[in-house]
């Protein structure tokens, strides 16, 4: 796990420091970094939370995204919190703000600078640090803003409850889902210390059986006339397929199947912003990859 070594050095931890946090031996850290062995899932989750990331990012070939603000980071394999992207819809005076990483902010700025009048792609996809995957219809919005965290807060600053830097780590969203929908598995694969943290996080933010879908499973459709529709998704693979259709602009209609089995067909041109759950999308990607 070369990523573990990179993160540890970025956070200025010695092997013995990280070992103490995880309750293991320094030799275990060395073995993991040298790929001589791999930690069990309980420890991987603890590592993800310590470094503000996810088990998915630790084990995949993708960049490691972290919710920590680290402007001194020069490691291109680690992508840390930068600031916020704001989307202003037509018929609205309120900007919707989401936390993003440095690489995401740079990509958005580059894409918009290079966008030409005859550009075929109208959809801009953006991953956020509060578990959202956004699809912005560039032709159906008033404005996109980028705000460095070092800048002053704007007058219209309104954030969702987890909108500053997310919950602190992407892994928290996966853990909350498991807590509510597969508690036995949650207890089996989560350290006692992290179980306590999740329990306190749920109580502090008043997450309940009645509203957990809003955090984990709900898709929000923001139409250009400033009306909104919420669709609760259960099937991660189906969500992944719907998102692929959106991103590659395959059809004139966007479609989602909700947890009741109803299929929603929505004209693409009527939509300004689609806000989907990032971790459910990643789960769908894994499910389809494993089936192949």
From TrEMBL:
SUPFAM superfamilies: lambda repressor-like DNA-binding domains
GO molecular function term, any single one: DNA binding
Domain HTH cro/C1-type: 4-58
Listed PROSITE patterns: HTH_CROC1
CDD domains the UniProt entry points to: HTH_XRE
InterPro entries: Cro/C1-type_HTH (IPR001387), Lambda_DNA-bd_dom_sf (IPR010982)
Keywords: DNA-binding
PANTHER family: HELIX-TURN-HELIX DOMAIN PROTEIN, TRACRIPTIONAL REGULATORY PROTEIN-RELATED-RELATED
The protein, known as: HTH cro/C1-type domain-containing protein
């Amino acid at each position: 796990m070369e990523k573990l070594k990179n993160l540890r050095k970025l956070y200025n931890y010695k092997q013995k420091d990280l070992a103490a946090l995880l309750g293991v031996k320094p030799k275990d850290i060395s073995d993991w970094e040298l790929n001589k062995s791999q930690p069990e899932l309980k420890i991987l989750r603890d590592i993800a939370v310590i470094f503000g990331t996810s088990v998915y990012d630790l084990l995949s070939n993708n960049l490691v995204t972290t919710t920590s603000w680290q402007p001194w980071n020069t490691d291109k394999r680690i992508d840390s919190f930068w600031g916020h992207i704001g989307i202003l819809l037509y018929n609205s005076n309120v900007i919707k703000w989401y936390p993003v990483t440095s690489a995401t902010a740079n990509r958005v700025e580059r894409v918009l600078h290079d966008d030409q009048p005859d550009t075929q792609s109208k959809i801009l996809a953006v991953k956020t640090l509060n578990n959202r995957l956004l699809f912005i219809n560039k032709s159906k919005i008033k404005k996109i803003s980028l705000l460095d965290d070092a800048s002053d807060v704007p007058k219209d600053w309104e954030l969702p409850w987890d909108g500053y830097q997310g919950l602190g780590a992407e892994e928290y969203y996966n853990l909350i889902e498991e807590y509510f929908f597969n508690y036995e598995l949650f207890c089996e694969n989560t350290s006692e210390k992290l179980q306590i943290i999740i329990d306190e996080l749920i109580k502090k933010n008043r997450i309940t059986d009645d509203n957990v879908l809003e955090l984990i499973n709900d898709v929000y459709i923001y139409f250009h006339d400033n009306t909104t529709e919420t669709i609760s998704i259960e099937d991660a693979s189906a969500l992944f397929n719907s998102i692929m259709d959106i991103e590659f602009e395959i059809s004139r209609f966007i479609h989602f199947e909700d947890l009741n089995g109803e299929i929603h067909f929505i004209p693409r041109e009527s939509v300004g912003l689609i806000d989907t759950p990032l971790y459910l999308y990643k789960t769908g990607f894994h499910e389809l990859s494993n089936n192949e």
